[in-house]
Design brief:
The structure is a homodimer of 146-residue chains. Chain A has five helices and six strands; from the N terminus they run ααβααβββββα. With 146 residues, chain A is an alpha+beta fold. The interface between A and B is large, with 40 and 40 residues. Chain A binds a DNA duplex (30 and 30 nucleotides) through helix 2 and helix 4.
Chain lengths: 146, 146
DNA sequence: GTGCATTTCTTGACTCGTTCAGGAAAAGCA
DNA sequence: TGCTTTTCCTGAACGAGTCAAGAAATGCAC
């Protein structure tokens, strides 16, 4: 649970105006890591029943641009957001149910970042997605696999 | 340029029926690495002017399931396909123009795959996307960056 | 080669996450 | 408190991808 005053301070800290939709959305992202936009809309509406979906989309973009939240979108998924930023962690995604978990990067800050055979690109981030099956899907689908 | 007979053999090799749409699409993916679905439709229609977009979607799914092509989808992009499969290579994506290039993985087969803190997931693939700026966007956007 | 069961393709409609647009409301500074 | 700018709301629109049902083609058996 995050304090509202703290969230407001965070918003001001990056030069964003403090509005009720922004506080509600930022709080929702803190409380529901890896949630998709619709879940965030629902969560924000528990604080602020009349926020429009458009406001949530706008706020998520503003928060993302400001670096307060991170947008992730594994292949085949809708956009998801998390409040854990700036620590270069990665994700495991379940191929079956789509659930996501965090993985701390054991390779340090940025794996494979050795500007070798990079085709002249100037690289600033290495994003890693691990694909597999989550514990529950693993037990469910392994049996009966023809 | 790939031989048609060769493509047919490839299709039969994985147990897929040989049809004109399949040959045309497979050829298109070979000729246009990292192309999106619409580009593939256009390319396939140079061989087969009346293929429906639905057929291309179906064929791409069949080819992907059969392992003949690989589907990639960097965040914010539509689905893209490539015929280079089974060699665990990765991609650099330009944040500005979205262009994609291949990167051979220098870490070996599967980086960071050490079942540690994996939350019980059984991981089968580690996908890496490098984000940055391609050579042309790099020179264009670096100047005049306020 | 023919016939037939099965797969695949075509047509056309539709879903749904996301974005666009214009006016109303709120934030924050003087 | 008043004013300018940003943000939010309402409502419509976009577009990649999917669904559905019937027509056509594939490839095997004969």
């Amino acid at each position: 649970m995050v304090d509202t005053a703290q969230l407001e301070g965070t918003l001001r800290g990056v030069g964003l105006r403090v509005t009720r939709p922004r506080v509600a959305v930022l709080d929702a992202v803190h409380d529901h890591p890896h949630a998709d936009t619709d879940s965030i809309i629902q969560a924000a509406r528990r604080d602020l029943p009349d926020v429009s979906h458009q406001a949530v989309y706008d706020v998520l973009r503003a928060l993302t641009d400001a670096g307060l939240v991170r947008r992730i979108q594994p292949a085949g998924s809708v956009a998801r957001y998390e409040a854990r930023v700036g620590d270069n962690h990665h994700h495991v995604v379940c191929r079956s149910c789509g659930s996501i978990a965090d993985v701390d990067c054991a390779v340090g800050e940025a794996p494979c970042l050795h500007g070798d055979a990079d085709h002249g690109f100037s690289i600033d981030e290495a994003e890693i997605v691990f694909w597999g099956l989550c514990p529950s899907c693993s037990t469910t689908t392994n049996r009966g696999k023809s």
